[in-house]
Amino acid sequence: MSETSVREAEIAVEQKHVDIVYARVAEMRAEAEAMRVRGDELAHGARNEAVFEQAAMLFERDVMVRHATQILRTLDAEHEGLVFGRLDSTDGETQYVGRLGVRDGDFENLVTDWRAPAAAAFYQATAEMPMEVIRRRVIRSTGQSVVDIDDDLLMPESRQDSMPVVGEGALMASLTRARGENMRDIVATIQKEQDEAIRAPWRGVTEITGGPGTGKTAVALHRVAYLLYRDRRRMGGTGVLVVGPSPAFTSYISRVLPSMGEDNVELRSLSDLLDGAAATKVDPAPVAAVKGSLRMRRVLKRAIREAPHDAPTELRIVYRGEVLKLEARDLATVRAAVHNGRRLPNQSRVDAAEALLEALWRKADSYEDFPVKRADLITELGERIEFHRFVVMWWQLVTPADVLRTLADRRLLARASGRVLTRTEVDLVADSWAEGSGWSVADIALLDELRVLLGRPPKRRRRADFDPFAPVSVPSGRRQDYDEYSHIVIDEAQDLSPMQWRMVGRRGKYASWTVVGDPVQSSWPDPAEARQAMDAAFGGPRTQRRRFGLRTNYRNSAEIFDLAGKVVRDVATPDQLPHAVRSTGVDPVIRVTTALTDAAFEEATQLLSIVDGTVGIITATSRVDSFRATAEAAGEPRLRVVDGLESKGLEYDAVVLVEPDELVHESSTGPRTLYVALTRATQRLTVVTSNPSWP
Ligand SMILES: Nc1ncnc2c1ncn2[C@@H]1O[C@H](COP(=O)(O)OP(=O)(O)OP(=O)(O)O)[C@@H](O)[C@H]1O
Questions:
Q1: Which residues lie with the beta carbon below 6 Å from any ligand 1 atom?
Q2: 650 CA distance to ligand 1 centroid (A)?
Q3: This prediction's pTM
Q4: 514 assigned binding-site residue
Q5: Does the pLDDT of residue 671 top 90, yes or no?
Q6: How confident is the model at residue 180 (pLDDT cuts 50, 70, 90)?
Q7: DSSP 8-state symbol, 284
């Protein structure tokens, strides 16, 4: 038989099995649908039953509806490539691997879930360690149709003539596919070193490092799917949080987990980790460096001890014909004493009132010939409306945002900072808040710190809040303190500032962690301080750690990565640079011109005609707005414009990098940012520069 007809015959064999699986899935879907209907009937019935039966019925309904919905969701997510692998072993057994475990009506295995221990050999078997696997086959489908297969022969000596082997490399086929709006899952082609990190135990901290394009993000997300599968009870109930660097990044990765049937994972970026305060800008590097350092915590702690700018500076009250007066100094002493107490400021107003009354009593007691009893004075003054009015103005309940807005005044920030910040630093930071154009990413960590330092004001109870028939699924206010996650994934961990580590650490008090990053791509100026804050976030140095290093760059062509490697030669050791496996024979293009904008769009237009997927223009931050406007006018949906920092974690088929020297100069860790930008393209890279001697 010719090679083509062997391939076609094998595709037909696999199609037969795939058809059986889809028929069975249709049955399962009908069963789940029936279960959901039954659940709704129960709920309807509950409304007509006696009250004491309602709770039990509602509970049963909830469990049923949730279970059925989960099954339907999983079945719906597996629209493409439900079955993607097959193993033929020495014992003559054939096993199919897919996105979901499926058994037939007699409980015979039709497909093994890729996350099950039984599927591990699909990813871990190699020619050196074949694990009894003779042939590993990757099955590629479109919808429910098998379109291609690729085989790896792992034990040639055990292969029988009846076992054909076709194709050359499912991995390469997948790597050369065009890139689109969203990242795709890699379940069919996870590599051995990646699989080890994905399947590591949930406990403690799993650190995954690797250079650009080594699949760190992909691995972290597949690990989430794996942990939810293996430990759904532990992980699913209290939730998994995935934190990425930017909203563009979270949107880019947003489809990966749903495509694996997991959509109850919270994806957040560092700019929207705090509800009600989304960041709309990024500070210039010198400002971000100050705001991110642990020194800011000391500044904030001092700031919240200051009296509000509109607080009264004197308390005068007439008691039984005598004037009792607390002057500014007395008031400052009382304020300091209340701050030194056990409760947080927003929960200390009652303490403040008591301390003021106590001070008034001491004042009265010091007067000669003024015989009053302490208890009488405290009760009588404590009931006076004028006293209450004073307390409300003097001990104000403040929000985190109030505090930062106050510190936009250079004088006030200087006072709060004492010797902690230099004059220049005070001016930089105060001015950034005075601009009033919304919060920056670095501000979010400060607001979160203040949330904890200030405490939540006591809630007034309202009877109407109580609804015995509210759905039982998510108790209202559950995540109010953000600290109930069971697992937290931090992507691009090398860029978190110490203050950001504190913010995520608060959310992971009871969590285990997966932390992925690449020290060489770091844009944070003080890695030692960040490292310390990171250790603290994990619960101290005694927390169990395991480390994995990824060494293969799957994104860039060897030609592109070669150029990128040159720019970080001074800041990276050779073993920190991954190995790019794919050569395209196309070298990066360097175009020298002073007409940067025109040239960049010309090159982008040309690249759009060559590649099927997206083209990214990466420029210095100062040029982004004008480039975006031009791109918008061009109306090309496959074209994106980002700056160096925004490009973190993203990828495009082709990249036009504009004026690399500018990227280097605009950040304190310039060569690293340029390295990030140079490693975003999968196929083509064009550099447009006015510097004839670049690189
Ligand atoms: N085993 C694999 N099979 C197919 N594609 C893969 C595999 N591993 C990684 N990739 C692809 O390589 C690209 C890079 O992966 P990913 O973005 O996860 O890398 P990264 O290490 O997070 O990169 P960076 O640090 O540069 O942002 C993605 O398109 C991903 O789908």
A1: 171, 174-175, 184, 186, 189-191, 194, 210, 212-218, 518, 554-555, 649, 651, 679
A2: 10
A3: 0.85
A4: no
A5: no
A6: confident
A7: -
